[in-house]
Design goal:
Pfam families: FA_desaturase. The chain is mostly helical. It has 15 helices and four strands. α3 packs across α10.
Length: 369
């Protein structure tokens, strides 16, 4: 299916999003609030970057004992995930600040943690946010057959156990980005014509990816092995421990919001039409979790309010909890779903059930249609 051939319905509850945007805009205007980040966002940025950098400096300088060094690597893993969820994510959506250069600068943090800000914007902003849960378009549900995230994907014998091995694969997310996926993506995006959406040539994009990954490999692998007071193999084990923690956290947060039984995994017809307005499709395929868990919400960048994020990616996450009341009420008025799990555990539990059903049955009973 060509990306330009997919079209969302123009006559399926299109009034919902018009009214919702009007109400949300009124909220910000009435309360004289900016849609961008605030002082709390700056404090969070400093904390998350420090959670990543400070352990790294200690690893290079004073962490002689193996247990202490590995503990620091683990803390850096949570800092790495925190940067991705709470800082880089908003910046690459352009919602961190009203100043473009600040968004661009903080968006480069993706490269600082071994990824690619360019690929992230295309995969996440362009594909995932536009074609949420559409097989063949949304790369968040495409893992090269290792797992079956959608009933529209082919079921393999190994998938019968995916609800068991998924948790290990989730931890390999950022390692995969670093060593393989970013190179595959940049080549694929060239063929799809998506590099033009970021105003960059393939040659320049590839050069930036190679350079930043070599620099990252030197700083996070070679330098610790060379100068850290702990044994060289502790640094190597620690690096993979950091990556595993970050990958696991990122995977669980995103998959628990989209690969759940309430999702309907839309299938375009032969003409490429999806029987739903774009905003309505977001409601059909997105779920919140733990809306009252303040500490969790703070750490994951408000992405427990995934519905609000998908409907308003241009609004900083510090506002999601407040506008969630408006979103929920408007959805109810228009007879549309507003999926939300009371707890994070509840979302993970249902995600696991769906993985099991997708691995066991072709039609995966339990999926909302």
């Amino acid at each position: 299916m060509n990306i330009r051939s997919i079209k969302f319905s123009q006559d399926h509850n299109v009034e919902f999003y018009k009214e919702l945007k009007k109400r949300v805009n009124t909220y910000f205007k009435t309360n004289q609030l900016s849609k961008f980040g605030n002082t709390n966002m700056v404090v969070k940025t400093i904390f998350m970057v420090a959670l990543y950098i400070v352990p790294y400096v200690l690893i290079l300088t004073i962490a002689e004992q193996a247990w202490f060094a590995l503990l620091l690597w683990a803390v850096a893993g949570f800092g790495m995930a925190g940067i991705g969820l709470s800082v880089m994510h908003d910046a690459n959506h352009g919602s961190y600040s009203k100043y473009g250069f600040i968004n661009k600068s903080l968006g480069y943090l993706a490269n600082m943690v071994g990824g690619s800000d360019l690929n992230w914007r295309i995969q996440h902003n362009v594909l995932h946010h536009t074609y949420t849960n559409v097989d063949g378009m949304d790369e968040d549900i495409d893992v090269d057959g290792l797992m079956r995230f959608s009933p529209n994907q082919k079921r393999l014998k190994a998938h019968r156990y995916q609800h068991v091995y998924a948790w290990f694969l989730y931890g390999l997310l950022t390692i995969n980005w670093f060593f393989r996926k970013d190179y595959q993506q940049i080549s694929r995006y060239k063929k799809m014509g998506l590099l033009a959406t970021q105003n960059i040539s393939f040659r320049r994009a590839l050069s930036i990816i190679v350079f930043t990954k070599l620099l990252y490999a030197f700083l996070m692998i070679a330098l610790p092995i060379w100068v850290a007071p702990s044994a060289w193999y502790i640094s190597l084990i620690g690096f993979f421990l950091m990556q595993f923690i970050a990958g696991f956290v990122l995977s669980v947060i995103f998959q628990s919001a989209h690969v759940v039984p309430s999702s309907n995994f839309p299938t375009p017809n032969e003409s490429g039409d999806i029987h739903a307005d774009w905003a309505v499709n977001q409601l059909y395929n997105t779920a919140n979790f733990a809306p009252k868990a303040r500490i969790l919400s703070w750490y994951v960048g408000g992405l427990n309010f995934q519905v609000e994020h998908h409907l308003f990616p241009n609004i900083c996450h510090v506002h999601y909890k407040d506008i969630s009341k408006i979103v929920k009420q408007t959805a109810i008025e228009y007879n549309l779903p507003y999926y939300s799990y009371a707890t994070f555990f509840g979302a993970i539990k249902d995600h696991t059930k769906l993985l099991k059903n997708l691995g066991k049955y072709d039609n995966a009973p339990g999926i909302h249609h």
